[in-house]
UniProtKB/TrEMBL annotation:
UniProt-recorded name of the protein: Pro-neuregulin-2, membrane-bound isoform
Gene Ontology MF term list: axon guidance receptor activity
Organism name: Plakobranchus ocellatus
GO cellular component: axon; neuronal cell body; plasma membrane
Superkingdom to which the source organism belongs: Eukaryota
Topology in membrane: Single-pass membrane protein
Length: 145
């Protein structure tokens, strides 16, 4: 099919070509949409120091999205005690032993050739005093878009 024919059809059926979706006879593409961003390891909305935390991000898109994680705007790289797992439509950021240094705004970014989507989750850590194991500070974890 000629390009001019496809363009005429796109003008005739704008609903098929809006909201990040583009269809033709050969393929249909869709910009990524993060469906869910949550955490495992939170207790009553707070994460304890030295506790394992898993941030999970699920997204859909065509082609399947590629993921990256940001912390306070900077890209997160795997390191000792921090792993990033990538699946076809999901990504997990695993912090083995959370510390106050891990606190911040984490952003899941899902990208493909059509576009990107991003969502934030705030990670706060309850640190413990050495003597008596009293709580020094208590924080919660909240998700935002």
């Amino acid at each position: 099919m000629k390009r001019s024919t496809l363009l005429r059809r796109a003008k005739a059926f704008p609903a098929l070509f809006s909201r990040g979706v583009r269809c033709d006879l050969w393929c249909c593409t869709q910009s990524p949409q993060i469906r869910k961003l949550d955490s495992q390891g939170a207790e009553d909305g707070a994460v304890k120091a030295q506790q394992r935390v898993i941030l999970k991000c699920n997204a859909k898109g065509n082609p399947n999205p590629v993921f990256k994680w940001l912390k306070d705007g900077d890209e997160v790289k795997a390191r000792k005690g921090l792993k990033i797992r990538i699946g076809k439509r999901s990504s997990r950021l695993v912090i083995r032993n959370a510390t106050v240094g891990d606190e911040g705004i984490y952003t899941c970014v899902a990208m493909n050739a059509v576009g990107e989507d991003r969502k934030n989750i705030e990670l706060k850590v309850r640190s413990l005093k050495h003597k008596g194991m009293n709580l020094k500070q208590a924080h919660s974890m909240t998700a935002t878009k």
